[in-house]
Amino acid sequence: MSTTSTTSTTSTTSTTAGIGTFTVRPLDPFKDAELLHGWVTHPKAAFWMMQDAKLEDVERAYMEIAADEHHDALLGLHDGTPAFLMEKYDPAHRELVGLYEPEPGDVGMHFLVAPTGTPIHGFTRAVITAVMAHLFADPATRRVVVEPDVGNKAVHALNAAVGFEVVGEIAKPEKTALLSVCTREAFEAATEESAR
């Protein structure tokens, strides 16, 4: 898989050979809420923990993120069509406070691929690669930190494929999580390896 990436002040564009072009834009909590509601309540999004959310719950959750200086939500497009959600947060202030020792340049990340009836082989890996490219496009980002549910084996495999290393299990109020980190160098090495 070969990926090229370009950045601007408002978005990041990544192109993956054979899959297409990904762009990222800020999420609009009102305009995008109905779309997101369908994604986060889908059975395949069980680990997102919003299965029973109503539309107004989704609006409220993403309005809170929009107002939070330590948390951002972005909508990812595949060839211009909404295809994934990504969140980035400061783990020194959100999600992981007191659960690990943050380092300067750490950025926390969540991502969710939209459910589809016509899956594309390699698509989810291309999405996480685009998400990581977006995060590392900021020169201040040194490491990406994630805390997926220990039971989310599919995401553990994806994380490993883009360079994450497991730190260990941590107990969060809502789940037992597998804390993992990915340095810029590990991500670049993993994506170069997959391009060969």
Structural notes for this entry:
This protein is α+β, with helices and mostly antiparallel strands and 196 residues long. The chain is 28% helix and 32% strand. Helix 1 (33-40) packs across helix 2 (55-66).
Please tag this protein with its features.
single chain; 196 residues; alpha+beta; nine-stranded mixed beta sheet; 5 helices; 28% helix; 32% strand; globular; disordered N terminus
Q: How large is the share of residues in beta strands?
A: 25-35%
How far the N terminus sits from the C terminus, by CA atoms, comes to 8 Å
- Please state how the strands of the largest beta sheet are arranged side by side: 1-2-3-4-5-6-7-9-8
**How many beta-strand elements?**
9
Helical content, roughly? Answer: 25-40%
Overall mean pLDDT stands at 90
Order of helices and strands: EEEHHEEEHEHEEH
Task: Return the structural class.
Answer: alpha+beta
- Major β-sheet, in short? 9 strands, mixed
What is the C-alpha radius of gyration, as a whole number of Å? 16 Å
Number of helices: 5
Global shape: globular
Segments where pLDDT lies below 50 for 5+ residues?
1-10
Topology:
Layout: E1 3-7, E2 12-16, E3 20-26, H1 33-40, H2 55-66, E4 71-78, E5 81-89, E6 106-113, H3 123-136, E7 143-146, H4 153-161, E8 165-172, E9 175-183, H5 184-195
Parallel strand pairs: 6-7
Antiparallel strand pairs: 1-2, 2-3, 3-4, 4-5, 5-6, 7-9, 8-9
Helix pairs in contact: 1-2
